[in-house]
Please model this.
Amino acid sequence: MTPITLFSFVLGYFLLLLGVAWYTSRNSDNESFFIGNRNSNWMLVAFGMIGTSLSGVTFVSVPGDVGKANFFYFQLVLGYFLGYLVVAFVLLPLYYRLNVTSIYTYLSQRFGRQAHRTGASFFLLSRTVGATARLYLVVNILQLFILDRLGIPFWLTAIVILLLIMLYTIEGGVKTIVFTDTLQTSGMLIGLVVCLVVLLKSMDLDLGSAWSSLSDKGYTRIFNWDMNSPGYFWKQLLGGMFITITMTGLDQEMMQKNISVRTLGASQKNMMTMSSILVVVNLLFLILGGVLYLYASANPVLLNGVPATGDDLFPALALGEAFSGAIGVIFIIALISALFPSVDGAITSLTSSFCIDLLGFRESPKTEAEKKRTRLWVHVAFVGLFFLMVMLFKAINDKSIIQFIIKFAGITYGPLLGLFAFGILTQRSLKSAWVGWVCLAGPLLAFGLDLLSNPAYYEAKLHVSLGLNGISERVFSGYKIGPELILLNGLITFLCLTLISRKKS
Model:
C-alpha cells in the first residue's frame, strides 16, 4: 500500500477524533476540562484507561524487547496488578474523602503549600518527559515508514500531530478524553489481535503450537531468579508494584479520570476491571513479540538493509512487503490509537495541574472566563513544550524507549512516593522550607546509586566511558538496580523527610 493511501487513513482517523471531540465538548467549562463534571461512566473510564496505561511504547517496545529479555516483563505486569490494588483501596478512598480536583491538594492539606508545589512540580517534570518519549516513538515510526517517502520533514509531522491533539482536547479536556480514549483503546486492541492472528496464519501456527515454538527458543521464560540481574523476580515484582502506585495512584493524569467518576465504589470497579484486563493484554503483547521474532528468524526483516530488532521490528514487518496493505493500515491505526490516550491525557493533566497547583485556580479571585482564557494559553504552552521535547528525543535517537521511561520514572517519581507515604503512614508535620531541598536530594542520591550500579547502561546511552566498572564491582558485587529504583528513591526521600519532621502540634 502506498504512503499516500496510508496517510489518507491516518487523516480520516484524525477527523473522526475531531468529530467526537466536537460532540462531547459542547457547553464545556473549566470543571468539564479538569474533572469531567464528576459524571463519567466508570466502564468507559476503565476501558479508556487501558489505552492510557499501555501507550505506543507498549505496542512497539514490549514486543521488540522479547528478543533480548524473553517474557521477563510479565514479572513487572504482575507487580502492576498488586499496585492497582493499593491504588484502588488506599489512595482512591483518600481522594474521594477529600473531594480533590488535583490529587496534590492532599499535600497542601497535610504539609502546606511548599509540599503541594513540590509534588506537582515533580509530576509536571515526570509526565512531560515520559509522554514526549512515547510521542517521539510513534512520530518516528510514522516518519520512517510513511512521511519520509512523501518528503515531509520530521518537525512538521510532530507539529501537525500535536496541533490535532490540541484541537480535540483544548475545550472538553477530561470530558472529551473519556470518549476518545474509549475509541482509541478499541482501535489498539483490534490491531493487536488482528496482527497476531495474521502472523500466526502466515506461519501455519495456532496459539498452542506458537507457544511450544516460543518455549523451545526460550522466549517464554517469565521468572528470573538471578539476584544480580535487573530482571530478578522480586525486584521486578516490587518495582512494578511501586511503579503503578506512583505512575497511576500519584499521577494526576491517571487519577484525573478516576475521580471524574461519580462515586468511590464505581471508581474502584473501574480500577480493578482495567487492571485485570491489562494483565491479559500485556501477555498478548509478549506473545506477539515472540511470534515476531519467530517470523524474523525464518524470514529476515530488514530496515534500510539492516536486520530490524527492538523497537524497529514490529513496524518494519507490519509495514513491509510481506503482508497485505491492509495490515499496514491496521498497524498504523492501532499504533496511533495506542499513542493518543497517553499524550492527550498527559497534556490535559499537565494543564490541569499547572493551573490548579501552581497558579492556584481554586483560590483565585479571577472570573471563570478569565480562568478559561489562562487555561487555554497554558494548554497551548504545553503543546509547544511537547514539540521541543520530541525534537530533543529525535536528536538522542534512543532505540529502546521503554527502558528509558522506567528508569526516568524511578528517578523522578520517588519524591511523590516519599511525600505521600510519609503523609499517610505518619502523623508528623514537616519544616516547610526544607521540603523542596529534601525532595531534590532523594532523586539525586538514587541516581548516584543507580549510576554506580549500572555504569554500562549509562555508558551505552551517553556513548562515553565513565570508568566506574571497578567501583561498581567493589561496592555492589555485580548487583544491578532495576525497577526497584523507584522504591529505593521513595525510601530515601521518606528517611530524609523524617529528618526535617516534628510532632504535630
In short: Residues 3-502 form a domain with the Sodium/glucose cotransporter fold (CATH 1.20.1730.10). DSSP finds 21 helices and four strands in the chain.
